Each structure stands twice: as C-alpha cells, then as structure tokens.
Amino acid sequence: GTAALIWNEIICEKVTNFIMNQSKEQRILDFVLQNAVRGDPCSVVDTIDKYCSQKEWAMNVGDEKGKILDKTVEEANPSVALELGTYCGYSAVRISRLLKAGARLLTVEFNPQFAAIAKQMIEFAGVQDKVKVLEGPSEEIIPQLKKKYEVDTLDFVFLDHWKERYTPDTILLQECNLLRKGSVLLADNIIFPGAPDFLNYVRKSPHFQCTNYPSHLEYMQVEDAMEKAVFLG
C-alpha cells in the first residue's frame, strides 16, 4: 500500500504536473466540468470516482467507504454537520446531497488551492447553499464555530484531515462544548495511513461509544477502516 501510494502520489503526480503544468486537483475539477451533469451532486461524485479509479489516484473517501459515510449521515440526519479536510470537495458534495432542507455543512480546508477547487466543485454540483468552505487550520476554526458561524452544537462530524489532528481536534470539540449527547463522529483512514492515537482515545473514553467499519483504502485493495464514535455526554 505504501509503495503504491508513493508511486501514485509522488512520482506519477509530479511528472504529470510538470508535463501538463497544472495540479492533479485541477485535472479532477476539469474532468468533472467536462463530464458530469451540472447541478447533479450524484453525477459529480460518480465522475470523480471514475477519474480517480481509472486515471489518477486521489485521497477522496471514495465509493466503497463513501457508502459507509452515506449510511452514517442518513442515520444521524444532521441539521449542522462539520467536515475536517475538504480536499477537492468530494465528500462535501456526497454529504450535502443527503442533508434535509435547512441543514448545513461547514467544511474546513487548510490548503487554499484545495479550497478554491472545492468551492468550484461544490458550486458545479449545485449544493453551495448547503455548504460553506472555511479556510484555515482546524485548531483555529473550531473555537470560532459558536460565535463566528452561529453553531450551537454539531450533530455530525467527519474527520478526514491530518491524522495527527484527529485526537486534539476531538478534544477541542469537547472543550468548546460543540458536541451534544448523540453527536456522531466518523473518522476515515484509521488503518491506512492510520490514526492509532484517536482510536485509543475514543475507545477508552467513557464519553464515546464506538463502532468499527472495515473497508479498503479509496480506489485500492489496501485494508483500511472507518470508526464511528457517538458522544454519550
């Protein structure tokens, strides 16, 4: 798995970026703009999956784990959801297409180039009224959610950013009183590349009830899993 990622992410991508003079993320967006149906979030998700499974690997949650994400969102039925790690907007589009009327998703992205791509992806999918992209480090944005973004508590949180931030950001969500009894956290990539500190924290905490969902790394046959942690108060 590591060797395949190094080949895809470092060698192939750098060569292609140099030859085409554009980023992989821009190529994904261009493929969507040319091949997906505007205003159809399902078409956008399917088109990204097609590109990333057939042309260039990318770190979206992907189609297999995406079904686990869908099921968890549907069960949580959130009014206010938070995503940590927007990347190209794949999971933001995927989540938002399942949100009930009046619900909203706040998605946090540290990389300004990724945020710019994601905003275009979200607009093309027609879900911009449900999704707000927040640019900056998660540790700075989380404490601002209540006052600046009028969040009382979060019903659903998707963790898919830097793995070493999973635990401190979960603690920060608790310290900022952003979780209520029944709030659902779903963490991606807990096996590959792995988030052992997070697993240790939520599984040993009396405040969380955990469920593990074995799966595979996006667009690969590499073992991975997602972890659901329901906040018990």
From TrEMBL:
Keywords: Catecholamine metabolism, Magnesium, Metal-binding, Methyltransferase, Neurotransmitter degradation, S-adenosyl-L-methionine, Transferase. The gene is Comt. Belongs to the class I-like SAM-binding methyltransferase superfamily. Cation-dependent O-methyltransferase family. One of its GO terms (cellular component) is axon. It comes from the Eukaryota. One of its GO terms (biological process) is catecholamine catabolic process. It comes from Thryothorus ludovicianus. It is an enzyme of class 2 (transferase). InterPro entries: Catechol_O-MeTrfase_euk, SAM-dependent_MTases_sf, SAM_O-MeTrfase. Pfam families: Methyltransf_3. Its EC number is 2.1.1.6. Gene3D superfamilies: Vaccinia Virus protein VP39. This is catechol O-methyltransferase. Mg(2+) binds at D160, D188, N189. Its cofactor is Mg(2+). S-adenosyl-L-methionine binds at V61, S91, E109, D160. Binds 1 Mg(2+) ion per subunit. The lineage of its organism: Eukaryota, Metazoa, Chordata, Craniata, Vertebrata. GO terms for molecular function: catechol O-methyltransferase activity; magnesium ion binding. The keyword Lipid metabolism does not apply. Substrate binds at K163, N189, E218.
